[in-house]
Amino acid sequence: MKVVALMQGADRGPRVLRSTYSLYNGATGALLLIADADHLTNLRTAAASAVATEALALPDARVLGIFGTGQVARAHAIALASIRPFREILICGSSKKKADSFAAELLSLDLPPARAVTADLCAAEADVLCTCTTSSLPLFDGRLLKPGTHLNLVGAFQPTHREVDTETILRSRVVVDTLQGVLSEAGDLLIPISEGATDERVVLADLHAVLNNTASVRRNHLDLTLFKSVGCALEDLVAAELMLRHRSRLEFEAVL
């Protein structure tokens, strides 16, 4: 069970979302684990993006671009750097001060060199681009994206909010985590559909179909691929069970 509070107003503090996750035994109802769901969500969201990137991004992708400077962005930098040998990370934040600070933080984590850049530069130079923001408006002009780019969109989860423009969607080969969730929550797709620029067929597959080779998405090195996720309960469940397994192993080793 996941309980989420969305903090609004000027006095909300540094965290917009605050949540708790409880894992229960399905047969007995016994409580197995209570976790900070903000941390769990960051991990599983970045992990899903990493899986999509491994499946869809070009093998020679070397520049990672990240929009956002929060914990989700941090988790993405760590997760994606673990699967691809990026030579640098480009950071675009809501302010240069935040972007500079975030870039310095990433450097301290033994990740590839990171630097703060403008939105246009981040969009134009990234081979893999992650949007991890709370923005309700497009972050960049979709015409700037170079052929072959792979995008992970994780920030917008309301029908009226989007992180990319219609041009980006029309140029991309789109994959989603869950079709039902995305088509009820993701403004990145719902807004272009409402404009009449495209329809639901713009979604080629869900990630499950891609990983099981039942859907063909990237056709060549010029295609733009896009993974849009809004999260799903199955990802939370798997992440929580892995946390429980890892904790149990650590406790067993401590006893030894």
Structural domain tally: 1
Q: First CA to last CA: what distance?
A: 33 Å
Treating each run of at least 4 consecutive H or I residues as one helix, how many helices? 9
Q: What is the CATH topology?
A: Rossmann fold
Sketch the topology as an H/E string, one letter per element: EEEHEHEHEHEEHEHHEHEH
Strand runs, count: 11
Strand content: 15-25%
Largest sheet: 8 strands, parallel
- Can you identify the CATH superfamily? NAD(P)-binding Rossmann-like Domain
Spans of at least 5 consecutive residues whose pLDDT stays below 50 are none
Helical content stands at 25-40%
- Estimate the global geometry from the Cα principal axes: globular
Alpha-beta classification: alpha/beta
CATH class: Alpha Beta
Quick check: average pLDDT? 91
**What Rg do the Cα atoms give?**
18 Å
How does this model look, in words?
This protein is an alpha/beta fold. The chain has a single domain, classed as 3-Layer(aba) Sandwich (Rossmann fold), CATH 3.40.50.720. 39% of the residues lie in helices and 21% in strands. The chain has nine helices and eleven strands. The strands form two sheets. It has an eight-stranded parallel sheet with strand order 6-5-4-7-8-11-9-10, with helices on both faces. The model has no long low-confidence stretch (mean pLDDT 91).
